[in-house]
Structure formats: structure tokens, C-alpha cells
From TrEMBL:
GO BP: any one term: trehalose biosynthetic process
UniProt pathway: Glycan biosynthesis; trehalose biosynthesis
Pfam families linked to this entry: Glyco_transf_20
Family per similarity comment: Belongs to the glycosyltransferase 20 family.
Entry protein name: Trehalose-6-phosphate synthase
Domain of life: Bacteria
Record-annotated membrane-spanning stretches: none
Organism: Pigmentiphaga humi
Amino acid sequence: MSKLVIISNRVASAAEGKRSAGGLAVGVLDALKRQDGLWFGWSGKVEEEADNEVAFHRIGRIDCATTGLSRKEYDDYYRGFSNGTLWPAFHYRIDLSRYDKREYAGYLAVNERMARLLQPLVDPDDRLWVHDYHMIPFARACRRLGMRNRIGFFLHIPFPAEGVLRTIPPNRDLVQAMCDYDLLGFQTRGDARCFLDYATRHLGLPLENGSVLRCANGHGVRVGHYPIGILPEDIQEQAGSNRGAHLVATLKEGLQERKLVISVDRLDYSKGMVERFNAYERLLESVPSHRGKVSLLQIAPSSRSDVEGYRHIRRQLESTAGHINARWTELSWTPIRYMNRTYERAELLSLFRASQVGFVTPLRDGMNLVAKEYVAAQDEEDPGALVLSEFAGAADELSDGAIIVNPYDLDAMARALDRALGMPLAERKERHGVMLRGLREHSIREWRDRFLADLDRPSADARPT
Ligand code: ADQ
């Protein structure tokens, strides 16, 4: 029987499988749980020399195969081109994106090495599903080895507009490498449109039937949008369980009846945390009745701390939170609680449920699963309100129930917070109901099924055999 092979930069260890802070890991684990398959990628270990060993472990029923990276590979492929060039540019931070052609060579070389290590583990009729920006040229590397499997690619982060993409010097090579997939999936219609815009206008490739790109070698690539979802029932169950009860009790004791605004993000400059803190301060300045009556809890586990942009945002957040707290704190009230730790999933979800407002305001985000998890974790009889950035992919689906904000507009964000904090129960229930219905209809299972069904569709192919 053919199997599903998932390829991503990082494969969770057995322990992380239970306690992961990455959106991709959450998605992959949920998608593979019901399907026999293999998850292949980097182990997370950095060694002096790459040894080309593949190690195997299991997460529940899921088989995983991993390899280490050498120090140089880590610097060039991971820290360099993936997170120093692609991540910032794809999140529209061209001021932070820098290019080094040796790092790009390292990025291509790791993709080629990974493809060589995977090849013996794959049967000809296995389907390959490659994830995210670290692995864009993976299919090209497989094709060069003669692999003819069906290969799909899903991009978890935004795909930028042509003018932004072109600031990455090898933009043409990257997009040409994407032509070796059978299916390209993006989070939103807007992302797919940006890709097609570049490919049709800049590379001059024809688009057939609205969704099949005819590449220079004659191969047809299907292009679509597949917004990643969650498992709402699972989240409701975990949020309502008593696994987080001790945390909620401690939290409530500290809050003393104050309202709680909660934000949870990986510590990343794309998540808009500085703007968020400033908007919260704007609320305290402009609506004095909230002073001493509300608390903002920002949970932000540190990530990629050896990439310069990340050290900078960390310092900036510490100083902004410190400044706001120094200005407003009273003996019995601290306006912002800012912490850099992770929580078990069930604990985090019960904190979502214990809050009155979810404040999710990235400057750019492929989807943002936290926004969806926040909605699913609420008590249906007394749900919290969601304030959501228009630049999160999730805004496409949640705009009927969330208060949508522009995260660059501090006054509008402060007004949205004020509105969310004072929203009557009937309105909260109505908005929550609308969002929850959408999340149930478009769960992560539907995401996986739709992507794989499209990957199986008779190809629009003219690939010569
Ligand atoms: P991320 O940028 O990691 O993912 P997100 O979608 O919000 O962002 O996923 C984060 C996940 O980690 C969520 O499931 C969240 O619950 C969990 N998490 C965050 N902080 C945590 C903490 N302190 N403790 C425990 N768990 C924590 C990338 C893209 C997103 C896209 C996802 C999935 O950047 O735009 O939505 O992939 O495609």
C-alpha cells in the first residue's frame, strides 16, 4: 500500500510531539494521526560534520526519520537563507532580509542532501507532501534523482507580492523550482494570487483553467489555497478538562476579578507584539476606567534566538513592557504580564478559556492558529471576544465574528480592545457561534483531505516520461 511521506525542515522528537510550540508541527501531527506514513526531516541536532545517518523514532503511531545538520549547514540553510532571507521577506520585512549567495548555495545543498537520504525510504507510488519555505527546492532535488512520485508543497507562511519577492535575488530560480511540484498549496486566496501573478506576469507562464500553471518544461502544476484549520472538538475538550485547572485558579487569584486580555505567540517580529503593547497602553491612556481593571497576559516563548532580528525584538519587547509597567503599575495591579515560556497544550487552552479577550494582531501571518484555537477553546455560554489583525490569514475566515483591526493603527486597536472588553453577552455569543461553525466546517482534517485529494487528481501533466 502506498504511504504518505511528509517532509518538513524539523521533525518533532517523541517528547516534543506532546509539547510543541510550532504551528507546523501541530498541523502535521494532526494530519498524520489517521494515516499510515512517514515524517522526514531535520532532527534539530547540529553536529560538527554531517554524517548522513538517518535515525528513526515514533510519535504515537507515526514513524519519523531524521538526520542532523552540520554547523555550516545550520548557519547557511537554516539561520541564513531560510530565516535570514526568506522568512523576513515573505513577511514583508525587507528591511530585515539580507542575502548571501553562499547561504543560498547551502540552502540548495541541504535540500539535495535531504532528498538523497529520503530516496531509499520511498516507494514509487508513495505520495510526498513537502512543507514550508525551508524546502522550496525539494521537489527539484527529487526529480534530479529520478523520483517520479507525486509531490505536493504547502507554504505555511504568506507568499509575498511580486515587488517584495523580487528583492530576494534568486527569486526566479525559487519560483522555477516550484514548477517541479504537482500541487502548490497556499494558506489564502491572496497568497495563491501573488504566486500566480509572479509566475504569469514575471515569468510569462500560461495559466490554464484558472488553476494550472504550464511550466517551461511542459509540466502542469496545480495551484490552490488550503487554509489550515484545527480540530475544534479536540480543543473544546482539552480547554474544558481540568488539566489546566490549577493554572486557572492561580491566575484568577492574581487577577482579583479583573478582566484578562490574552496573547500567545512565538517570539517573532512578524507577530506585532510591540505595536500590541503600545495599543494596550493607548487604551489605558484614552479610557481611564480600564486602569486597574484589566490585565494583558502575553505568553511568548523565545524562538530562533541566534538570528539577529530575534535578539532585537526580544530587547524591544522587554523594554516596551518594562516602560509601560513602570508608568502604570500600582501596588495592587500590574498592567502587562509578559513571559517567555511554553505551556502544555491543555494548559494553554484553559488560559484561553479563562480570558475575556483574545488579542491576536500579527503584522503578517500565513494563517495564525492561535486565533482559531482561541475561538474553539471558549465556553459557548460565556465566550470571550476576539480582536484579530486583518493581516493574519485567519482573518479571511473569521471576519464575521472577530473585531478586525489594522495592527499599524494604535488608536483603532485601542478602540477595538475597548469594544471587546465591553461587548454584551448576546453579541459575544452570536459572534462566537458564527466563528465556531466555520471552524467546524473547515477543520484540519478537511485541509488534509482536500490537499491530498487534489494531489491525487489526474494531473494536468504533460511531463515527458
Ligand atoms: P507559527 O508562526 O508558529 O506557525 P501559529 O499558527 O500561531 O504560528 O501556531 C503556533 C502554535 O504553537 C499554536 O498551535 C499555538 O497554540 C502553539 N503555541 C504557541 N505558543 C505556545 C506556548 N507558549 N505554549 C504552548 N504552545 C504554544 C506557522 C505560520 C502560521 C501558520 C502555522 C500553521 O507562521 O501563520 O498558521 O504555521 O500553518
